[in-house]
Design goal:
The complex is a heterodimer of chains A (527) and B (377). Chain A is of the alpha/beta class. Chain A folds into 3 domains: 175 residues, 3-Layer(aba) Sandwich (Rossmann fold); 70 residues, no CATH class; 255 residues, P-loop containing nucleotide triphosphate hydrolases (Rossmann fold, 3-Layer(aba) Sandwich). Helices cover 34% and strands 25% of the residues of chain A. Chain A has 19 helices and 22 strands. Chain A has a 6-stranded mixed beta sheet, with helices on both faces. In chain A, strands 16-19-20-13-21-22 form a 6-stranded mixed beta sheet, sandwiched between helices. In chain A, strands 2-1-4-5 form a 4-stranded antiparallel beta sheet. Chain A starts with 7 loop residues before the first helix and ends with a helix. With 377 residues, chain B is mainly α. Chain B has a single domain, classed as ABC transporter involved in vitamin B12 uptake, BtuC. In chain B, helix 14 packs antiparallel against helix 15. The N and C termini of chain B lie close together (8 Å). Classes of the chains: A alpha/beta (527), B mainly alpha (377).
């Protein structure tokens, strides 16, 4: 166990009061029986980047929502610039100079940059006057903070990185001195993330204060001055970033020592188990999401598909697993074709040895309202061992669930508990247990550790390597480049629906990052 | 954080909240009675007494409840698959054809216990057929079931007018009804059942279809929670995307569930036709299909909740009629208002008091905080 600091008060004694941008004193918030924030003390100094790190459900978002006026604290004070303030809604937060860039952007897609920036902050009933005023102000901001963006571009035509820049401009336009960024790099390529970090550095130099929320330790180390760690609704420690280490922070977050590196031996690839050829998939609107994709997956290897979210990885997985119809192309499973353009039946594919851990466990991989044991048979409910004729064999289902709970250390160990009441990591373990324990030939996994706590990540990665070592073919899709690099034996990169390159896992992050951004890919395709 | 209000204990979830909703509904109804210038306490007395005061009253209450159990189950089954069947009314109406045909065919030659099973099959088959069409249209053509089942209620109504004025009416009769069935088409009353409790059923048409309703409730429970098909339909009801992932055919489930739902609605026709009237009359369903929606909502789509909810609505029907009789300034329409309030508070505003109750529990819980801590985050 780690020593936990008395953060707030002691912190305040050696910091000059006028240096403090925001101070939270004894913030407490409960939702029904869930105690989301417990007596939180936090001091953020002016002109610094202050990281807040913690696992999912640690209470980071709740705390920031209180600061931004979405929720009201049950007790405790918010001090801005030395004055105790009440922040009853986001407008009040903005009035106190607090701006927020949300994880999911709050932009009107079919408005221009300018219209989005001034939306809700128009200073006249007559739109034209507002627009011309806003244009001048926006130009000034762009120049001051080096945040170039075409004010007349439509949001939907901008790449994600620029959309995020618009969100930052929105906050600055409203004269925010304190910027809260909630998991800002989740949707960015590594290059875009680096660019964002540079922007944040500039903002800091201009005297802005930045609160940076993330669950990625590397980002904390890269850009913050100070970091506060949350665990189970409590603020467990605050450190100066240059006086701490990734290992210490991870330990503080989880509450025990964690292994961050994945140990794995050499791959031992065998026969081709899954062969995808010229697969093309369109979405509901007819937009081509997967464009002529081909690859082979062998037994005993992990093939990682890297790419920024939304570049066709999801549709690729859905087409292979029979959930979404492909337009053209072919897929062979164990040498026999899957009818991907016609009536591929997920049930039939399961019988043929294909297991699928879907990206979205909340809506696809699990039925959250089901009991744990019921989710344990989802998709395999035709199996005779779970049935007595047409009736469910509840005893067998229960026993099966208990076995998996033990083997995968699913907590709480209660097969009758509603799945929604498990944590993200344990929900993911329920899906993994179901799909892995079948001993499939081919396992396709989307985002194995999205929204999963650090402790469970370690376990999940180990299990995936174990599957490989048992000679299974594993297709891994993840937007976490670190994860892809740590687990994969080969990496292919998808951009705009196409495979733009294949690399070894020891390829540098920069190299993969360029591919993910489509830069290298265009060159390669042209050659 | 997806569900900010933590789970309540089961007894509060299924007992306390419905009870509070009901009490509030009756309080508001009491206000309405007060506005009309009558004494709400007196009205409440007439309601309770009219529904449970005598063996005969209880018989009537349970007779209505029988009808509502069938239609409530019909709505609930579809609901578990995520389908909102508004057409129980029409399906029950068409189901009546099955009952009438069985009785007209066999009532003179066979005893009731032979005719009854035939009528059960007939009513379920006709009801299922009437639900099959909207089910098929949604599964294959994407026509929304809420719209089509409403339409099919009107079509059913017109078909029955045609049948009862042109086809199934005895020659020379001016009444829009079939001929009266002989002994074989008449279900025996459950006077012995009330007799056990020392009650006399009197004129109340409380008949064996009540037992069929209880059996149907049990069968529906088994279907939903203990069969593979029930597992599949619940999966689809909670998450169509998870159903697709699990290889569950939406088309197949939609059509079969609608037919089961329609079949249950069709069974409702047995109660008034073979149990009370001994003939099929125009409009014999009298809105029971729609009451079924309220019953299913109140009963949380669980058979164990639907039975008490159906009895509650039986009480409102029977006791309400008694109020209208005893208190002339309260018309039958007032009873509809009271029923509407019950539906409003128990169904539509089901979650209104939940946050407050959740907070109350949290306050109690934090005192014994050791238990709450393990639940944290």
């Amino acid at each position: 166990m780690v020593n936990t600091d008395e953060t707030g008060p002691t912190w305040g004694t050696w910091v000059n009061m006028s240096d403090i941008a925001i101070e939270l004193r004894g913030i407490d918030k409960s939702f029904g029986l869930v105690h989301a924030n417990r007596n939180i003390n936090l001091t953020v100094r002016k002109g610094t980047i202050h990281g807040i790190i913690g696992e999912n459900g640690a209470g980071k978002s709740t705390l920031m929502s209180i600061l931004y006026g979405f929720y009201q604290a049950d007790s405790g004070d918010i001090v801005v610039d030395g004055n105790v303030v009440t922040i009853k809604d986001p407008n009040a937060a903005i009035a106190h100079g607090i701006g927020m860039v949300h994880q999911h952007f709050m932009l009107v897609e079919n408005f221009t940059v300018l219209e989005n920036v001034m939306l809700g902050a128009e200073d006249s009933q007559i739109l034209n006057t507002s627009i011309s005023k806003a244009r001048v102000e926006l130009k000034r901001l762009e120049k001051e903070y080096a945040l170039e963006v075409n004010p007349d571009a439509l949001i939907e035509e901008l790449p994600v990185g620029l959309q995020q820049r618009v969100e930052i401009l929105k906050a600055l336009y409203r004269k925010a001195d304190i910027l809260i960024l909630d998991e800002p790099t989740g949707v960015l390529t590594p290059a875009e993330a680096d660019h964002l970090f540079r922007i944040l550095g500039q903002l800091k130099d201009q005297g802005k204060t930045i609160i940076f929320i993330t669950h990625k330790l590397r980002e904390i180390m890269a850009i913050t001055d100070e970091v506060s760690v949350m665990r189970r609704g409590e603020m467990v420690a605050t450190r100066k970033t240059n006086e701490t280490s990734v290992e210490e922070l991870a330990e503080l977050m989880v509450g025990r020592r964690v292994l961050l590196r994945v140990d794995k031996g050499e791959a031992n690839p065998g026969d081709v188990k899954l062969s995808v050829e010229n697969l093309t998939v369109r979405d509901g609107r007819g937009v081509t999401m997967v464009d002529n994709v081909s690859f082979n997956l062998r037994a005993g290897e992990i093939l990682g598909i890297a790419g920024v979210a939304g570049n066709g990885q999801s549709e690729l997985l859905e087409a292979i697993s029979g959930i979404r119809k492909a337009v053209s192309g072919s897929v062979l499973l164990n040498g026999k074709p899957i009818d991907v353009t016609g009536h591929a039946d997920p049930r039939d594919l399961r019988d043929r040895g294909l297991a699928h851990v879907p990206e979205d466990r909340h809506h696809v991989g699990l039925v959250l309202k089901f009991e744990e044991a019921e989710n344990g048979i989802l998709g395999y409910h035709h199996d005779k061992r779970y049935l007595n004729g047409v009736f469910l064999n509840t005893k067998a289902i229960q026993a099966d669930a208990e076995e998996k709970i033990k083997k995968y250390d699913i907590r709480p160990p209660n097969p009758r508990l509603k799945t929604a009441n498990f944590s993200g990591g344990n929900q993911q373990k329920i899906v993994l247990a179901r799909e892995m324990e079948r001993g499939p030939d081919v396992l396709i996994i989307g985002q194995p550790t999205r929204g999963v706590d650090v402790g469970a990540i370690e376990f999940i990665h180990k299990r995936i390597i174990e599957m490989r070592d048992q000679g299974k073919a594993v297709l891994l899709v993840s937007v976490e480049l670190d994860e892809i690099r740590a687990l994969s034996d080969r990496i292919i990169v998808m951009f705009a629906g196409r495979v733009v390159g294949e690399r070894d896992p020891d390829a540098t992050e920069g190299e993969l990052g360029l591919l993910m951004a489509g830069v290298e890919g265009r060159k390669e395709a042209a050659e | 954080m997806s569900n900010p209000y933590a789970k309540l204990p089961a007894w509060a979830e299924y007992g306390l909240i419905p009870l509070i909703n009901l009490v509030v509904a009756f309080l508001v109804a009491g206000l309405v009675v007060l506005l009309v210038g009558e004494n709400p306490l007196k009205a409440a007395y007439h309601m309770i007494n009219g529904a449970f005061g005598r063996g005969e009253y209880i018989g009537f209450t349970l007779y209505y409840a029988t009808t509502f159990i069938f239609t409530g189950l019909s709505v609930a089954v579809a609901f578990h698959a995520g389908l909102f069947n508004i057409g129980s009314e029409g399906q029950a109406y068409i189901g009546g054809i099955g009952v009438a045909l069985a009785c007209l065919w066999l009532d003179k030659t066979m005893p009731w216990f032979i005719v009854f099973p035939v009528a059960i099959i007939g009513s379920a088959a006709f009801g299922a057929l009437w639900a099959f069409l909207p089910g098929w249209l949604q599964a294959k053509r994407g026509s929304h079931i809420v719209i089509t089942t409403i339409m099919f209620n009107f079509i059913a109504s017109s078909i029955m007018v045609y049948l009862l004025t042109k086809v199934m009416k005895p020659l020379g009769s001016m009444a829009t009804q079939t001929r009266t069935f002989e002994a074989g088409g008449q279900l025996p009353k459950l006077d012995w059942l009330l007799g056990i409790f020392g009650l006399n059923v009197g004129n109340a048409p409380f008949n064996v279809s009540f037992l069929l309703a209880l059996f149907a409730a049990f069968a529906v429970w088994v279907l939903i929670w203990r069969t593979r098909f029930g597992f599949e339909m619940r999966t689809m009801g909670h998450s169509p995307s998870a159903a697709r992932y699990a290889g569950i055919s939406e088309t197949r489930i939609t059509i079969i569930v609608m037919m089961i739902s329609g079949g249950l609605a069709g069974l409702m026709a047995l109660n008034p036709i073979m149990g009370e009237q001994f003939r099929m009359q125009l409009d014999f369903v009298q809105g029971a299909g729609f009451v079924g929606i309220a019953v299913a909502l109140m009963g949380r789509s669980h058979p164990a909740g639907i039975i008490p909810a159906a009895i509650l609505f039986g009480m409102l029907y029977q006791g309400g009629a008694e109020i209208a009789f005893e208190m002339p300034s309260i018309s039958r329409d007032m009873i509809v208002i009271i029923q509407g309030l019950v539906i409003l508070f128990a169904g539509a505003l089901e979650n209104m008091f939940r946050p407050a109750i959740g907070r109350a529990f949290a306050a109690i819980g934090s005192r014994s905080s050791a238990a709450a801590q393990t639940r944290g985050a």
